[in-house]
Amino acid sequence: MRSFLTGPIGLRAISIAVFVVVWVLASYAFGPRLCPGPVSVFAFAAKEIASGELPYHLAITLLRVIAAFAIAMSIGLATGLMMGRSRIANDLGEPWLILFLNAPALIVIVLAYIWIGLNESAAILAVALNKIPNATVTIREGARALDTHLMEMARVYGFGRMKTLRHVILPQLQPYIAAASRSGLALIWKIVLVVELLGRSNGIGFQIHLYFQVFDVRAILAYTLVFVCIMLLIELAVVQPLERHANRWRPKPA
Amino acid sequence: MRSFLTGPIGLRAISIAVFVVVWVLASYAFGPRLCPGPVSVFAFAAKEIASGELPYHLAITLLRVIAAFAIAMSIGLATGLMMGRSRIANDLGEPWLILFLNAPALIVIVLAYIWIGLNESAAILAVALNKIPNATVTIREGARALDTHLMEMARVYGFGRMKTLRHVILPQLQPYIAAASRSGLALIWKIVLVVELLGRSNGIGFQIHLYFQVFDVRAILAYTLVFVCIMLLIELAVVQPLERHANRWRPKPA
Amino acid sequence: ADAEIVRVGVLKFGTVNWEIDTIVENGFDKKHGFSLEPVVLAGSDAGRIGINAGEVDVIVSDWLFVSRQRAEGIPLTFVPYSTSVGAIMVPDDSIAKTLADLRGSRVGVAGGPLDKNWLMFRALAQDRYGFDLAEETQPAFAAPPFLAEKLRDGELAAASNFWHYNARLETEGYRELVSGQDAAKAFGATGPISAIGYVFNEEWAAEHKDAMLGFVAASHEAKELLGTSDAAWDRLRPSMNAEDDAIFRNLVRRYREGIPSRPMAEEEADTEKIYRRLAAIGGEKLVGSAQTLSPGTFWSVLKEGE
Amino acid sequence: MGAKVLPFHTALHGQLGVPHADKVEDHAFSVRIEAKRFKRANGGEVEVIRDLSFVLTPHTFTCLLGPSGCGKTTTLKIMLGLDADFSGAVSPALQRARFAAVFQEPRLLPWRSVEDNIRLALPPEMAEKDLTPVLDAVELNAFRSAYPSELSLGMARRVALARAFSVEPEILLLDEPFVSLDEMTANRLRHLLLELWQSRPVTVLMVTHNIREAARLADRLIVLSPPPAHVAGTTEISLPHAGRSGGALSHLLVDLAHRFPSLALE
Amino acid sequence: MGAKVLPFHTALHGQLGVPHADKVEDHAFSVRIEAKRFKRANGGEVEVIRDLSFVLTPHTFTCLLGPSGCGKTTTLKIMLGLDADFSGAVSPALQRARFAAVFQEPRLLPWRSVEDNIRLALPPEMAEKDLTPVLDAVELNAFRSAYPSELSLGMARRVALARAFSVEPEILLLDEPFVSLDEMTANRLRHLLLELWQSRPVTVLMVTHNIREAARLADRLIVLSPPPAHVAGTTEISLPHAGRSGGALSHLLVDLAHRFPSLALE
Ligand SMILES: Nc1ncnc2c1ncn2[C@@H]1O[C@H](COP(=O)(O)OP(=O)(O)OP(=O)(O)O)[C@@H](O)[C@H]1O
Ligand SMILES: Nc1ncnc2c1ncn2[C@@H]1O[C@H](COP(=O)(O)OP(=O)(O)OP(=O)(O)O)[C@@H](O)[C@H]1O
Ligand SMILES: [Mg+2]
Ligand SMILES: [Mg+2]
Fold first, then answer.
1. Residue-wise pLDDT tens digits, B73-116
2. Membrane-spanning residues where (chains A, B) (predicted)?
3. Beta bridge partners of residue C36, listed in sequence order
4. Is B248 in Cβ contact with E82 (below 8 Å)?
5. Stated pTM of the model
6. Which residue among D64, D72, D224 is best mutated to probe the pocket of ligand 2, counting the most ligand atoms within 8 A of its Cβ?
7. What is the ipTM of this complex?
8. What is the distance in angstroms between the Cα of D45 and the nearest Cα belonging to chain A?
9. How many structural domains does chain E have?
10. Where among E168, E192, E220 does a domain terminate?
């Protein structure tokens, strides 16, 4: 039992239990209107799931998140690598990078909608445009810190571009890619909400904003929590096993 | 001349020139209302600067950005290090991390304003809360990738906590800190805009929203660009010299 | 041929949705020779983007927006939709009796410093009591739902908010201190003015004249029905988000009060007066280069028709 | 001649008076590793060390020899307290001791200068120590402000040696300290090490593959078996250090080669 | 005896017929480094190599010796095309050649298994090569699926050697390949290297500090001066490899020690 409690599942369970307790206390402190308790939130979520409303909006949002994520990460990886390895690419790209990095999400979204139209491509493009510079910046740091010794080895043994990328560069970038992915997924989801708020007729962001207008905190929390649960699930069931696999070469801690 | 053009300043100048050209073309293509050209945008910016309006809002926003940045980075650094180095801390913190990582900015802001009040502390706290998990995630990857050989050396020579942190850990985390700072500053600024939009009566986000309501794209672009210019300046005049100093030990490229 | 489609941007829980829903449900669109396609949006920002991007044909907004866009060459135009406007709400037991009593207190303001209600209240305070509300109160600009909430928990002494938030507050022990219509009257309006209306592109409307006229007619018919029939409201109730009967009844009452009844030319004349006052206070930031209500802000086709 | 070759048990019990294994912990500087296993990345476990124990008599110079991959570095790591995941025990005296170590790689902080790399390792009471003598000794005074990436591997190893020498440790653990150095430099540094050891009360344990080096420096050799490693034999060398050159050294080497054929020079 | 000691110029011009420096590029496998400078991190520049040139006759075995930090690794890097920032030239034949290199550190990909590390270095036409023989030769067949972090340093070096041996290069550059290995293993690998060199047309250049090793393996020694490095002398060894043991080898060593006092064994 003791080992279960200090094991990975036990500790996470403790942590989640603490969270629920804090939540219940907060709901007593602030009252059910401003901070509805877990029971009422989950009841609402269950109702919305049963009605099919929540799964519909969730699916739409997830699709947008995935599309924007795939676009942003692949472009960010390419630009980050280029800017990290080549001084010329870096000097040329820097002003653009800083521009896009600091362009408010709102502006990018509005301009994308106006210039491209109020449609799905504009939405996804706007989200991706918001995320690309973040991914670029992170990957660029990784590319700058690449081990020159291994690069030299790869050159001597004639690895060529693809082999070097796959076997020498990407494994070194793994922690940077992991950081960019995790914080990127979160950022994308934040921006998808804004995108949905400004010009889509469905998705979780749309729903949350609707409920914000009528100040239904319970509904807002329900939609948020379902998404967070999905992310927790993806993290535990997909990302972490993948990461363990990618990191199996690291020396096991004593 | 040739060497100037391929030098860092020359390349950046070229890049900015290309940007301006693209902008002018876009403004012809979309018309001055949907995409006002650089001249009219800068004229507007100059007017707003002269009137003192823009500097006022800019200063307020920058203060918020700096405060939130300082809070978020120091907490993110601490939690990221802890979670990266200790399995127990990681297992305990993980659900909270994912919760805060994926809590929509809107929710955090709304709850902060509701629970703390429509005031400056709530605003800054809301922004910091949005950024902390991102910083944590990035730093945690860095902490996981720390060189065990150097850590062992530090232990054998009795470095102690502070010395290890300062001379062994932080220099290794430098690229991760740089990535977290750059993308963090950008993220914070994006969220500050939302925070200002939802519940503050000044700041660039407030102004942009104001102009958005009357659909004055020129004013929106002017405010955005001034901020981007400030960031570009900070990057070139502060961050990069600091980085060069921090990285002077890296082998010079051949 | 198929009936022409008119895409109308509506907020799901917004008041416009009630009318649009009624049109569709009762087949008023088919009856008037067009097909109405509601585009559900999450906020008024989305509406502004949508009309600028040409992805919706009709949204609901105010004549300030229309006039400014016209001045800058975008031929939007306006058909009155409702005379319901915002008001400053205070708790029933507040000692405040007039705007003057708000001096020094924290006042929430929806829609930002360029909101027409807020500007009218500022003008009114200037006229009647000789002070600037913006200077002598602490305005807190924030999202409308916050304001209602912050008024409830006492952080704000008063809040200038939109009518459907206020209708709710009225059932919870809050009262109107002063409304937009009060202010309008003080500036010489001869009756209630329609602050918001259906906004669309004049050129588009010229190409789809029959459909747009049909839309206006359908809107009238829906208003008539909602103005008289309680059954029509019962059907809408689920989408009104009214927690209890009192709120529901108050929303209905307020909606009915807001149905515009005056000839458009009369409204336009009143609006011009008010516009000048607002332009004086809001300045260029509010109105852009147009110091007077841009000609054609009210849809000329309708005026001719009358 | 000069090399007193002893069978393992005799050497330990007879000569050094080691107590029974279960009391090893009380004794100064003793290590007893009953088993050391590593988890393999692809599941499974390997046993690297089994029943390896020895005692370092204070102020002696011991050399540890053994085939590549037999567990020498692992043993040092356990002694340094860097690996606690083994069954067995390390004596309290060893746990408390102030160590210096030269690892098999230089392990310098790339972002600190040569001088800072040494200075950071100094205990607080020596913080202001003049590093010129030790830097001179390793012939790197001109490079005191250089960063490790500006050094050749041999130079980096010399910095690591200078770092270990300057902390004035109780126990000095050296893992092949003199490889990657030209013979002249290596010899100078071997002399330096001997001098240091003779002038201060320090206990030295040095891993080496160079039997000649071991014969010249050590009081005692401990030879490990292939994995799972245990002590295959120990040898005391009683010949004074000054006398270990020319013919005497050759003789010693022949003796050792006879005793441990696996260490053969050629 | 057996060691033909030649002054530098005689060796180069007389024996090997090197053309004038400005025509060096046309010749097979020649290097001419007029100057190699490094920028220091704290500003300034150091000249590490000045007027260093030599020619590798195809299919010979050359050893490069020199004091620690004199520029041996730098020279290898220039030959490998990893450092183009020098004045001088490398012959086109050298630029085109297929290399294998054993660096001073193992330089394995930590995230790839031992087998993958070797296989990745193979040119496409050998992709399916059976690695069992070479892994057997370095005694690491049991570790073919292990990751580098699970190896001892000596084992990692053996993997690096196996990698270099298995690509069947035209030119093999070795930077102190046999350090950190016990003598028995090192000897076995030296034999392996000799066999490889004799069985295939490969040109070998090996950096070493071990004069005994050089004397046993090389056709020719090139000795560098302290920095700024240039060739201090070259020596041909014409004694057949089979005969280099026992007394003959000792004699050779004495000869060499006499010619290059700085390489002295003790
Ligand atoms: N990146 C660099 N920046 C500055 N100086 C350097 C750099 N790399 C090498 N040096 C200098 O060049 C000289 C030669 O280095 P190199 O690595 O070639 O030596 P080496 O002969 O291989 O020595 P060793 O036997 O110790 O490996 C050294 O003095 C070193 O300080
Ligand atoms: N982290 C690890 N995981 C699995 N096996 C390991 C690990 N570390 C070391 N080993 C194994 O332990 C054995 C001993 O390693 P160690 O580094 O102690 O050898 P060594 O005697 O120092 O060898 P060398 O002379 O080559 O340095 C090796 O067979 C190695 O494969
Ligand atoms: Mg070892
Ligand atoms: Mg070297």
1. 999 999 999 999 998 999 999 889 988 888 888 788 888 887 88
2. 9-30, 62-84, 96-116, 220-242
3. C6
4. no
5. 0.87
6. D72
7. 0.86
8. 12
9. 2
10. E168
